[in-house]
Amino acid sequence: MPKAAVIYARISQDRVGEGLGVKRQLADCRAEAERRGWPIVAEYVDDDVSAYSGKRRPAYRAMLEAIRSREADAVLVYHVDRLHRRPIELEEFVDTCAEAGVKDLATVTGDLNLGTGDGLLIARLMGAVAAAESDAKSRRSKRKMLELAQAGKPSGGGPRPFGFQPDKVTHHPVEAAVIRDLAARLLAGEPLVSLTQWLQDNEIRTVTGKEWRTVTLRNQLKSPRMAGLREHQGQVIGKALWPPIISEDEHARIVALLTDPARRTNRTARSYLLSGLCRCGKCGGKMVTGQTRGRRRYMCRSGADFGGCGGIMISATVEDLITDAVLYRLDTPELAAAIEGRQRADENTAALSESIAADAAQLDELAALYAAGDITAPEWMKARRIIDARLKANRSRQAQQAGSTVIAGHIGNASALRTEWPAMPLGKQVAIVKALVDHITIAPGTMGARSIDPARVEVHWKL
Ligand SMILES: [Zn+2]
């Protein structure tokens, strides 16, 4: 019987992680110790967040030290996968235990005896299994999602839905009333665009603080959640735990109305080279693409979804003008110099990717902490804001770097590119244009002009 057992717990990367939260691991281990009659002399807890950024797990090292110095003679963990992330770490653990004569390693999920050959073998096997388990984690998390869905419970991560409190179950009194009002008005025939405008006029924002758009409002109003139904992977699978905001009958009518093919606006697949790149010379708004009288155009549009002045339109033949400008620019020595300078500055690309991966992992970890009840929603949001901001900045730097890679092979070789251009897929053309062009400002034109006056078009170069 051990005289000085220790508990080791670790916060994992397991996003759902119910049962693996540190509190739960510790509670289960303490109960197991009591059942076995092992006296606990210390508890060690690590946080995988720091392990991810390359630091060693300090509590784990302290525990090994306690074993080495004979202060501990038995170890209790929730599962072997808490103890080690890689088989190589297990070897060090086994060696340390062997030297110190520690033979008792117990887990809540099944125990091991390190003193026998079998125990060691099992521990090694379990270590190998733990290494393979990171793959299984996504499977477990999917299963967990399904379980939550089947129980009618809300899913773990993400922001609260509009109309509900952060617990995703209790109604938000103001927002729930807004939804009921909008649903009734929609069913009475008011167009979605007018409802969206009303939300904007009343400064009612989405839960992430953004302005509503018809597409977000459409999804909001036809969401089964509003009728107290639980959806899983796009399918309603039963009643939810939360009370409905609108009735199932209203929900069914809204879905029928909003998915009526006759109502759908005609959104064609992307076929515009300069989508998102043109700015209105009058109001500065983003110009959108579309057809008027059968001709492709870029235009500034007013209204809830667009927010422009509606004052400028230009024929899509502006694409030819921009293509020429881009191909011409690819031949300039200034561009070659700019690219070379940028590539030197970008030698830390790998560091950037690492930082992005670490931040993404940390966000997952925070979600797991929140799901396990170890931190509150405000704490979660606060921590997320900081990481999100850094992640966004790093991702945009990464995207810019990718941009210089897109055109690297084409500098000084524009005539070959010019020959290929007409047969090139639009996606590739767009990538090349976007690598060079930040945006294009379109000035007002003369009524009735037959071709585009190049003076209307001002290109703002990235490079
Ligand atoms: Zn405008």
TrEMBL record:
Domain Resolvase/invertase-type recombinase catalytic: 4-152
Domain Recombinase: residue ranges: 161-264
Xref: SUPFAM superfamilies: Resolvase-like
InterPro entries from the UniProt entry: DNA_bind_recomb_sf, DNA_bind_recombinase_dom, Resolv_N, Resolvase-like_N_sf, SSR_resolvase, Zn_ribbon_recom_dom
Pfam families attached to this UniProt entry: Recombinase (PF07508), Resolvase (PF00239), Zn_ribbon_recom (PF13408)
SMART domains: Resolvase
Domain of life: Bacteria
The protein, known as: Serine recombinase
Provenance organism: Terrabacter tumescens
Lineage start: Bacteria, Bacillati, Actinomycetota, Actinomycetes, Micrococcales
